[in-house]
Amino acid sequence: MPTLMPTPGTTGWSTRDIPDQRGRVAVVTGANSGIGLVTARELARRGARVILACRSETRGREAEELIREEVPGARVEFGPLDLADLSSVRGFAAAYPAERLDLLINNAGVMALPYGTTADGFETQFGVNHLGHFALTGLLLPRLLDTPEARVVSVSSGMHAVANIDIRDLNSERRYRRWVAYGRSKSANLLFIHELARRLATAGSDIVAAAAQPGYAATNLQTAGVRLEGRRTAERIVALANRIIAQPAEAGALPTLYAATAPGVRPDSFTGPRIQGWRGPPAPSFRASWTLEDRAGKLLWAESERLTGVRYASLPT
User: Fold this and answer.
1) At 189, phi and psi to the nearest 5?
2) pLDDT string in tens for the chain (317-residue length)
3) 3 beta partners
4) Largest CA distance in the chain
5) Catalytic residue at 115?
6) Number of CB atoms found within 10 A of residue 309's CB
7) Cα separations (Å) of 213 from 65, 157, 181, 207, 224?
């Protein structure tokens, strides 16, 4: 059964409550559209230097210009990052342009795609949503550890409750069901944060590792899968639902912004929209109990290190 992880002080919280971010540096993956773009824009509005970590240079540059138009004087810059290719992840980390890293927002993701694999042979949803961000966080960890009060925020989903991970079949090789694979990848996001928070605490680090979920927010995420398959009717239905039911990306980004910037956010907390986890201001989010299991977190961590070749040597086991 899901459990509720408390997050204090969320009542009525909005972008007006984001503290001053001047002097801070943030990386936002998938910052070219949707909640990633809103997250990057609002951090820049509060004075942060924001690196837009995007797969497409064209869309990343467009987002860079859009933010500068909306926020004159914004300090934003594009950085090439393809989470479906570990060589790109390593290249991004090697070229990281700042001495500090205050906020790492693991936002980018894919949802309910037809079966496919990443450049390294991983099932696409697990590879992009979990393994790519696991590798990125590990490679950037030295910068995070050198920055006082840094935070790592991973964007999961209420759909994590659809399925627990299967440690024996992380890449869905036995049977692929797109929504089950998506749920597993989002459960992996939460297990990663759970184990990362545990290891950081053991190391005595003040880094806060937390998670967020946007509820039902209107973004390109919902239509990508059906568009890839050429399912025009389904794409129109999803687009209509986005217009009628979903909350805008501006609202969907609030839980992420809260987890990244609000005072008093607890390690391993999970923030989402207040109203049934679908819409509304940030509040504690329901969380499946399996995402809080220490043994599962350790097993997933060990497999993630093995699959990516990225080891968190500076953190105790």
Assistant:
1) -55, -45
2) 233 333 344 458 999 999 999 999 999 999 999 999 999 999 999 999 999 999 999 999 999 999 999 999 999 999 999 999 999 999 999 999 999 999 999 999 999 999 999 999 999 999 999 999 999 999 999 999 999 999 999 999 999 999 999 999 999 999 999 999 999 999 999 999 999 999 999 999 999 999 999 987 655 654 444 445 554 544 444 444 445 455 777 889 999 999 999 999 999 999 999 865 566 889 999 999 999 999 999 999 999 999 999 999 999 88
3) 287
4) 53
5) no
6) 11
7) 27, 5, 17, 20, 19
The pair of structure tokens assigned to 121 is 């042979």
* Alpha-carbon distances of 68 from 23, 103, 274, rounded to whole Å: 18, 20, 31
Q: Which of 96, 182, 258, 312 is catalytic?
A: 182
Specify the residue for token string 């999803």. Answer: 238
Output the CA torsion sign for 99, 104, 107, 109.
positive
Nearest to 190 by CA among 103, 281, 297, 277: 297
Q: Report the CATH fold assignment for 2-13+20-304.
A: Rossmann fold (3.40.50)
Domain ranges for the chain: 2-13+20-304
Radius of gyration of the chain (CA): 18
